[in-house]
Amino acid sequence: MSSSVNITGLLAQLINGTTESSKSTTPSVRKLNSVSFSTAYYKSKSKSENNRTTPSINATKKAIVLGHVEKTPLARVGQASSETSWWDSMIDQLPRFGLSEEAENAIASTGVTNYPKYFVWILPDKISSDSILPVVIDNQIANLSLFPVCSIKNEAVTERLVDGALIRIDFENRLLKNDPYIVSVMNNKAEFGRVIFNELEGIASPEGEFAPCNEQGVAVAHASGDTIGTAADDFQSEELIYINGDAIYPYTEGMTNADLVVFYHGIETGKTNKQEQNTILAELESKVSQGKLFIIPEGHDKPYSSIEGTISELENRGITIGDRKLGFWSGGAVGGKTALESDTFSQVEIADPSPQSSTIPSSIRTPGDKIDMTYNRSNWGTQSYYTNNIDSYVAFLTEHEVDINETDDNHKTIMIRMLGKLL
After folding, report:
1. Percentage of the residues of the chain whose pLDDT score is greater than 70
2. Which has the minimum average pLDDT: 100-109, 156-165, 360-369?
3. φ and ψ at 350, to 5 degrees?
4. 263-272: per-residue pLDDT in tens?
5. How far is the CA of 389 from the CAs of 358, 382, 383, 411, in angstroms?
6. Three-state SS across 126-150?
7. Rounded distance, CA 232 to CA 280, Å?
8. Spatial distance between the Cα atoms of 275 and 232, rounded to a whole number of angstroms
């Protein structure tokens, strides 16, 4: 699950919560007068009721605009723009419904027709709270549909809100926090929005990619099937070493020959690169045949040219590298692309890849009959960056005669199966 514990920078300063004082309050000394039980009871009750009806914090919330909701009006860009405002557009639509002039005037005056709407991220009350974090990919929110929709119902708000704008919202039903609407616009500058999105990209998706998730309905936009925060995060072994940050397993002193498998991990939100490496290593434990070494690169997008430096270091340690194989899972398609472009492998296994323009190779040096790909569209839901690119990705590999298979398996199961083919 995404967590706000990694929030820093400007976003941390915008968090709504208040910080409790670390200093203790010095108790006051009062002169107590005797009162009857009934008097004390009713005074206490009255005080309690007054406290209960007085909010201790502002009921409104700060929020970040994530994107405009399609098929709702857009406000004008600025006062100097020739575009009509959303309010004017709304009024213009009323005659289409065959209403009387009196009804049109009543509706227009109350503004109950088509409001501009935006997806928003309501900032958490404190840094340490668990909350859904926007997943930023190519400067767009991948899990946009998981966030609440907020309306502009104020005629005075005429500006078109930029992505990343800071607003203050309230709710029609504060108790249930239903039907949020914009109270005021705090910062609608494009430069501010870019800073917000850059920080989000470094928090929710630190490598700029899409991260696998579990199947429990956790509100993050990842392919389903992976478990987050498992014991695999702390994988340790005497046969595990690191070179240039890349995990090498199973390594033993005195090795002289080894076949090599490079396997790019995916991204798991909230995990470090090492923990993401450990997800793969945990599946390899005690399963790798003798004379074979796995390299799990440090990062889903680490260029293969950097991996070749790690391979050279292994050779400097006296290990003769024989056969070379490649595998990549999910967001590891980014690094896998550079490998396909750079080297020839005896076998390539592609596990439920995250397709984007940055994952389609310019060329493939390995023959297509040596490459297998297995994927499941349903693991990715309706994320636009996936649905917009998966067909192109499949078509490209098909042109190179790659063996492509669709399956009903979940995201992690596909990885385990494809990894097993490389053992």
Report:
1. 66
2. 100-109
3. -110, 120
4. 999 988 778 8
5. 10, 12, 10, 18
6. CCCCECCCCCEECCEECCHHHCCEE
7. 8
8. 8
Both tokens assigned to 50: 């007054």
pLDDT tens digits, residue range 190-237? Answer: 889 888 888 887 764 433 333 444 333 233 334 543 433 454 667 889
Q: What is the pTM of this model?
A: 0.51
Decide if 61-72+115-203 and 231-420 have a common fold: no
pLDDT at residue 92 is higher than 70: no
Q: 61-72+115-203: which CATH number, 1.10.1220, 2.60.120, 2.40.50, 3.90.550?
A: 2.40.50
73: nearest Cα among 11, 13, 17, 118: 118
Distances (CA, A) of 268 to 27, 207, 230, 248, 397: 49, 10, 11, 20, 26
Residue 52 has pLDDT above 80, yes or no: no
186 contacts 62 by C-beta, under 8 angstroms: yes
Where b means 16+ CB within 10 Å and e means fewer, 273-292 reads bbbbbbbbbebbeeebeeeb
- Residue 367's alpha-carbon distances to 9, 303, 340, 417, in angstroms, are 47, 21, 10, 22
233, 299 contact by CB (below 8 A) = no
- Quote the DSSP letter at residue 319: P
CATH architecture of 231-420: 3-Layer(aba) Sandwich (3.40)
Which residue from 139, 190, 146 is spatially nearest to 166, judged by alpha carbons? 190
End-to-end CA distance of the chain: 30
Average pLDDT, the chain: 77
Nearest to 370 by CA among 399, 351, 341, 345: 345
DSSP per residue, 25-77:
PPPP---PPP--HHHHHHHHHHHHHHHHHS-SS-SSEEEEEEEEPTTS---BS
Token pair belonging to 196 = 């917000």
Q: Where are the domains of the chain?
A: 61-72+115-203, 231-420
pLDDT at residue 124 in the model: 80
**Strands of 115-214, DSSP E:** 117-122, 136-137, 140-141, 149-151, 166-173, 178-187
Using CA atoms, how far apart are residues 278 and 172, in angstroms rounded to an integer? 46
Q: How many other CB atoms are there within 10 angstroms of residue 171's CB atom?
A: 18
Q: Tell me: pLDDT of 113 over 60.
A: no
